Amino acid sequence: MSSVANGAVICLAGPTAAGKTAAALAIAQEHDAEIISVDSALVYRGMDIGTAKPSAAELAAVPHHLIDIRDPLQAYSAAEFVRDAMRLIAGIHARGRLALLVGGTMLYFKALIHGLDDMPPADPVIRAALDAEAQQKGWPAMHAELARVDPVTAARLPPNDSQRIQRALEVQRSSGRPLSSFHTSKTIADNERLTMGMSLISLEPVDRAWLHERIARRFDAMLAAGFLDEVLRLRARGDLNPDLPSMRCVGYRQAWELLDVHRSRTGEAPFPMARLRELGINATRQLAKRQLTWLRSMPARQVVACDSPDAVAQVLWQVEQQLARSGKP
Question: What is the pLDDT of residue 191?
Answer without folding.
Answer: 36
